Amino acid sequence: MAEMIEIRWHGRGGQGTVTAAKVLADACLSGGRNVQAFPEYGPERAGAPLRAYNRVSEKILRMHCPVLNPGVVAVVDATLLDAINVAEGAKDDAVFIINTGKDPKDVRLKLKVKPTQKVFTVDASKIAVETIGRNMPNSCMLGAVNRATGIVGMDVLLDDVKGSFGKKFAQKIIDGNLAAVKRGYEEVKEG
Amino acid sequence: MGATTTKIVAVTGNQAVAEALRQLNPDVMPAYPITPSTGIMESFTKFVSDGKVDTETILVESEHSAMSACIGASAAGGRVATATSAQGLALMWEMLHIASGYRLPILMALVNRALSAPLNIHGDHSDGMGMRDCSWIQLFSENAQEAYDNTIMAYRIAEHKDVRLPIAVNMDGFIISHSIESMTFIPDAEVKKFVGDYIAIDPLLDIDHPKSIGALVLPDYYMEHKRAQHEAMLNAKKVISDVSAEFARLFGRTYDLFESYRLEDAEVVLVALNSAAGTIKDEVDRYREKGVKAGLLKPRVFRPFPYEEVGAALKNAKAVCVMDRADSYGGYGPLFMEIASAVQPHRGPVLFNKVYGLGGRDLMPLDVDQLIDETIEVAKTGKAKMIKEYITVRN
């Protein structure tokens, strides 16, 4: 694993993108790693495009600024692909994980990514509806991001999802989210 | 290091400070929540509802009332804390002087935010600099860990019999308050032991020994009161050093009046408060690898300002770029004025001043690189082109 992994999340207000970044940070604490998770704050409205960031590092994280050159780009809402350039500043070996029902090859063409960059897709919205009962794609995206990056053990990630949702939600919702994480991990496709 | 067993957690700066406040368990906490410090009160009132603290929270109708309630509760003999930001602190301003004039060791968590107008909720140091002359001890924190540690140390400093002044612990709004970072908490019992019980001097609620607070003092004695405050502030320097040394012995994290990062032999030095210092350290390392003798001085204690120590630390540098995340419009930035005063007795380096990051504008590693490059140039020529300038700003 690289010394430091920098992730940029693109989502829309209300999809749980910031929560996903937070849960991932918590899970990555395992093995004594250092973590950061922080959103970009603007006028907060449901549906408005937002970004959130993660840094995970073996070394102490001292910098306090947005990620400009992410190694991982997670797009929680595919409509953002038409609105903003999610590939901006991404590293040459960056990994993209997109919530869409489309084939990764089609998305690759649309994003105009470099041959050295990898594209993964997963229909996180559909999986969310089937597992949680509504379009809340963040948990499924966590599973997919974890498959694409291998950033943390699945058991640790599942434990953390359980822990952070367990404080707020009923067992049914927690189970749904855990199922979504697993299905995201299993069903994400590379192309 | 002591026998502390600490668990690494990932929390926001606000959660970290709220956790410190839970462990400190103040008697009274009056507040009027304001972004970005709201999270502190959100977490803390949950601790109150869950019975995890004995604190009486007083939710008042304005920050002026919040500080007034702090003053009343502290004068009564309680251990008192509050949290605020920006306009909230500005509205407290009148009462800030009362708190320090009464010599009340109130603790304030100040989550630094820009002042309106234009309306802006993001992080800069305009609010903290606005309380510079209010006779409050001011500690600054680079990250959540430092904000937590400074908060744990705060009462020990403020309540010391040679000090008895209110204290504000600063951290950057959003950049720290709303960002999750890994850090460690100290176990409850060890915090309790370190902080100890508060024995108020002359509390109003000691009804067997009635006394009055807030008497009229005319020209015959006003100056003596004010000089006593100044001397208490000077005493605070040693107390801060002593408390920090004890903290380091027990918990293994070392704090000084300011942090010297690769400063020993540095020729090219940046000076900055709070979160920017972290980004600067990474760039200092990069320049060191290239053979540039770069360094950083990060003040932790802004009041009392450690002039002699800072002057001694900077006197051998060739050029110093002082970075201000606040401005004194028509004057130099507030941090620059302190550094200039500190360096003044020495032949010292060439100083110049950059204003950055107002209203939460990001300071990126490349911006820091530009400043280091300019400081190298100033060190070479011995001249700064402009003494004070805004950076990362549209023309």
Describe this structure in words.
The complex is a heterodimer of chains A (191) and B (395). In chain A, helix 2 (104-111) links the parallel strand 5 (95-99) and strand 6 (118-122). The two termini of chain A are 22 Å apart. Chain A has 191 residues and is an alpha/beta fold. Helices cover 37% and strands 21% of the residues of chain A. Chain A has a single domain, classed as 3-Layer(aba) Sandwich (Pyruvate-ferredoxin Oxidoreductase, domain 3), CATH 3.40.920. Chain A is globular and about 40 Å long. Chain A is built from 6 helices and 7 strands; from the N terminus they run E-H-E-E-E-E-H-E-H-H-H-H-E. Chain A has helices at 17-28, 104-111, 124-131, 138-149, 154-166, 171-187; strands spanning 4-12, 34-39, 49-57, 72-75, 95-99, 118-122, 189-190. Chain A has a 7-stranded mixed β-sheet, sandwiched between helices. By secondary structure, chain B is of the alpha/beta class. Chain B folds into 2 domains: 8-251, Rossmann fold; 258-390, Rossmann fold, CATH 3.40.50. Chain B is 41% helix and 18% strand. Chain B is built from 12 helices and 15 strands. Chain B has helices spanning 13-24, 38-49, 63-76, 86-101, 126-130, 144-158, 188-195, 222-251, 276-289, 307-314, 334-343, 365-381, and strands at 8-12, 28-31, 56-59, 81-84, 107-112, 137-140, 167-172, 180-184, 258-261, 268-271, 294-299, 301-303, 319-324, 350-355, 388-390. In chain B, helix 1 runs parallel beside helix 6. The radius of gyration of chain B is 21 Å and the shape is globular. Chain B starts with 7 loop residues before the first strand and ends in a 5-residue tail after the last strand. In chain B, 53% of the residues are buried. The model of chain B has no long low-confidence stretch (mean pLDDT 97). The chains are: A alpha/beta (191), B alpha/beta (395). Chain A binds chain B through residues 21-22, 25-26, 29, 32-39, 41, 61-66, 68, and chain B through 8-10, 121-122, 142-143, 172, 174-176, 178-182, 275-276, 278-279, 281-282, 362-365. Strand 2 of chain A pairs antiparallel with strand 8 of chain B, so a sheet runs across the interface.
